[in-house]
Design brief:
The protein is an alpha/beta fold. It is built from 16 helices and 8 strands. Strands 2-3-4-1-5 form a 5-stranded parallel sheet, with helices on both faces. A 3-stranded antiparallel sheet has the order 6-8-7. It is globular, with a radius of gyration of 22 Å. The protein starts with a helix and ends in an 18-residue tail after the last helix.
Length: about 325
Amino acid sequence: GIDSRVEKLMSLLAIGSNDVRIIGIWGMGGIGKTTLARVVYDKDFNEFEGGCFIANVRGESKKCELLPLQRKLIREILMDDSVNIRDDYDRVRMIKNRLCHKKVLLVLDNVNQYNQLEKLAGDSKWFGLGSRVIITTRDEHLLTRHKVHGIYEAQGLNDYEALHLFSLKAFNKYHPSKDYLDLSTSFVDYAKGLPLAIDVLGSFLYNRSKEEWEDALDMMKEYPKKEITEILEIGFDGLQGTEKEIFLHIACFFNMKEKDYIVEILDCLGLHPKIGLKVLIERSLLKYYENKYWMHDLLQQMGQDIVHRNYAQELEKWSKLWLHKE
C-alpha cells in the first residue's frame, strides 16, 4: 500500500519547484510514518545537493540531547567530518550559515518536542532554494506551531493491503492459503489497518500450526502483544495527568459516545475536557467524527490493559471497572 501514499506525499512536497517547503507526516504510533518518509527520501535523494535522515529524534535527544543530531545534520549534508561545533549557539548558527545556499533533503523522524524543530530546522530560510524538510510526528500541534507548508495525515491500510502485508509476514507469499484464510482475516481485523500490528502478528505466527493460530487469536483479545503496546504507549506516556485520565475514561467507557455526553461527565470530574480532548486528537490518540469521539481498537485495548496491568487478579484495586461480571 506504499505507492498511493508516496504519491500523495509527493504532491505536497512538490519536488522540482524552487521554493523551500517543510512538510509534516502526522499519525498514531505504528501507522507507517517513518516507512513512508524513508521511501520518499531514498527515492528522491539524488535530486538534491545533500541530504540527511535523522531517525528517532525523540529517542536520540532523550539519550544525549541535540548536539549529536545537529553534528550529524551538518556533517552528512556538507560531507565534512572535520566540522567543529563548540556550543548550542554555534550549532544553530552553523546550520543556518552553512546550509542556506545548499539544496537539501532533510528528514526529522519522530519529533515530539518543539525545541527539536527550533534547533534542527528552525526556519525555511535556513536552507537553500528547492530544499525539502519532512517531519514525522504524533503531535499535530507541533506542526501547526512550526507553520509547516502542508500536513499529510498517515492512513491505516485497507483490508486488501492489510491482508497482503500480513501474508508476506506470515507465509512469505502474497496471499494466505485457503486453510488459513479465515484465521488470517481475523488477525487482520484485530489489527484494524495498523501496519505495526500486522507486521508483529504476521511475524509471530510464521511457521506455526493452525491450533497455535487459534489459541494466539484468543490470547490476543485479552493480552495484547508487548511489541505493539510499547510503541502505542509512548504517546500515552507523554500526556499530562488529566489527559491520561481522559484517555483511560474513553478507553474504558466512552469510545464512540456522543461528544456532549462525554464532555459533561469529564467536566463534572474536573478533568478539563475541552482542552484535554483536543490534545488527545492532536497526539493521534483520538478521532472526532460525526459528533462522536472514536479511539482505535488497539489504543482502547492498551488503555484497558494499563488500568489492570499491575493487579490482573485483584479487581478491587482497579481504578475503573467496565464489564458487568467484574
